[in-house]
Amino acid sequence: MSHRIPVLLVLIALIAIPDSGLQAQDQETETKMRDAGAAVEVYKTTEDAEGAPVSLNAYVFYPADHKPTDRRSAIVFFFGGGWKNGTPNQFVEHCKYLASRGMVAMTADYRVLNRQGTKALKCVADGKSAVRWIRQQADRLGVDPERIVAGGGSAGGHVAACTGVIKGLDESGENTSVSSRPDALALFNPAVVLAGIDDRPPLDPEKVAGLPERMGTDPKALSPIHHIGAEAPPTIIFHGKADATVPYWTVQEYCGAMEKAGGDCELVGFEGQGHGFFNHGRGDNSSYETSIRQLDRFLVKHGFLEPPRSQDSPRLTTIDLSNDVDRQVIVDREPGQYLGHPTTCLLEDGKTMLCVYPKGHGRGGIVYKRSDDGGLTWSDRLPTPENWSTSKEVPTLHRVIGPDGTKRIIMWSGLYPARLAVSENDGLDWSPLKPVGNWGGIVVMGFVEALQTGPGHYLAMFHDDGRFFAADGKRSDTFTLYKTFSTDGGLTWSAPQSVYQSSDVHLCEPGCIRSPDGKRLAVLLRENARRKTSHIIFSDDEGKTWSSPREVPLALTGDRHTGKYTADGRLFISYRCQSPVQSRKDRVFEGDWVGWVGTWDDLVEGRDGQYFVRLGDNTKGADTAYPGVEVLPDDTIVTTTYGHWTKGEQPYILSVRLKLSELDRR
């Protein structure tokens, strides 16, 4: 079992990281840093192992509008390399991003074995000197001395952790009345366990015997987990769960020790990722993007950054339409009867709209209605096949076209087994619900997206927590996001394949949006554990492969995102406003039916967007908003959902009509 791996293997593996060939940084590194926009500062003059003088630089990235009189938060990063080699270049992109967000961000050199012949003890001393120097120079640097963060990767993460939790080890002669302890830590696959814990067996005796010489002291003196106390600063750790250099269990132990001591430690694990996964330039940069935005959120949470704002809209505009009754159309209402979870389908004539919803919370007989005037008025409840009354979950409507051009409408009903009904005459007649395969899931399907791989090709996604995927399913702590494909216009579907699964992040209820140029797919995902904001994934190959999930801004966080483009290229996305537990007090429309207006680029860049709109004031908890969104030929948005719109009464189905030009005038 992985938790029985000898703990000192971590240290040996880090020492064995191959030399990158960048032993002589000095002028080469300084030139690269200046070219990247950094100011060069000498934070320490010291000696190498032979007594020769050494100047250590801090490379400082300032915000564009920075002034020396500012009191900005600051962060200093320490590079990885097994205390043997490495370069401050590792964290340039992290610094540039955080400077763009308003921090004074820097990456610092420190002494290592291959250049200065020094031991790990000196690495830690240099890290402490760097933090102390920032605090001493705070007035000149425009920094708040009480808002300093230390960060780093691997051995550099170890250096940063030591500055936060280990007392002493300071460079002799420095003014220790100025604290070298940072106010927060940001650690990337850090080495935080360097000596035995819980009586776990050490490595073989020959290797263990050489550790004190390599460290320059007893390894336990440099093992952060052995020094955690109540004064440890709030910490976030990013770590690959498949890290073979620094095993994942070591950071789990570290966070557990922090929490036991009363500290705040947040561990962000990355499924299937190994050592160094977070570096800019690694793979498609999705892990870098996810980790930097998670770091952003952590820094906002602890007061080191202001919440992010869109570049195009300095302040996200909040609009409340919930009292505009002239915009509202009641689709269906029945005293004493719960009506919920509708979806809609707009036909090609731009005015015929179909709507289905269950009599109950997800489970219940399916009600079917039709509008012939773009949702202004609705028919009575229409006849449906008898077995529609046996629906176990939310029904969803989708327009599909077969390889031969035949137009159909399909309706999914989930849980086990997933079932499908079909209409071949635009909803005038329907088939009964029939099983699609020997599988099922929750909210089948969140979307059905036409693909460019061939006529009649479609992608759909759903999720499950183990209960409904198979006939004998049982609930688990793991949520799995599945994909399935059709090549015959939605009549038959492939065996579902896992896109992502995790026991830490519960991603579900996918909603798909295609890029304006048609080349990229984005899927927005609810985070059901309520620990993090909603997530987004991207595909550049028509759904074959997907990027690692990353969080979206709080402004777009919620459940069951459904979005469409308007004529000017902007997006309108409808969803339920439901936030991570720690953020709920910051959301003005928590538990309500809301909409978001922004652009595709806002999704890609993780920006707030333009408008945050309350569409309906839900009066009972968060029991609302499985929305349909349709855009009429005149650019009117018709969005439809259920909610407790009248206090003390059962929920009913409501549409809201709006144009973005109306929001612009507001």
TrEMBL record:
<keyword id="KW-0732">Signal</keyword>
<dbReference type="Pfam" id="PF13088">
    <property type="entry name" value="BNR_2"/>
</dbReference>
<dbReference type="Pfam" id="PF20434">
    <property type="entry name" value="BD-FAE"/>
</dbReference>
<protein>
    <submittedName>
        <fullName>Lipase 2</fullName>
        <ecNumber>3.1.1.3</ecNumber>
    </submittedName>
</protein>
<dbReference type="InterPro" id="IPR050300">
    <property type="entry name" value="GDXG_lipolytic_enzyme"/>
</dbReference>
<feature type="domain" description="BD-FAE-like">
    <location>
        <begin position="69"/>
        <end position="248"/>
    </location>
</feature>
<feature type="signal peptide">
    <location>
        <begin position="1"/>
        <end position="24"/>
    </location>
</feature>
<dbReference type="InterPro" id="IPR036278">
    <property type="entry name" value="Sialidase_sf"/>
</dbReference>
<dbReference type="InterPro" id="IPR029058">
    <property type="entry name" value="AB_hydrolase_fold"/>
</dbReference>
<comment type="similarity">
    <text>Belongs to the 'GDXG' lipolytic enzyme family.</text>
</comment>
<dbReference type="GO" id="GO:0004806">
    <property type="term" value="F:triacylglycerol lipase activity"/>
</dbReference>
<dbReference type="InterPro" id="IPR049492">
    <property type="entry name" value="BD-FAE-like_dom"/>
</dbReference>
<dbReference type="InterPro" id="IPR011040">
    <property type="entry name" value="Sialidase"/>
</dbReference>
<keyword id="KW-0378">Hydrolase</keyword>
<feature type="domain" description="Sialidase">
    <location>
        <begin position="421"/>
        <end position="575"/>
    </location>
</feature>
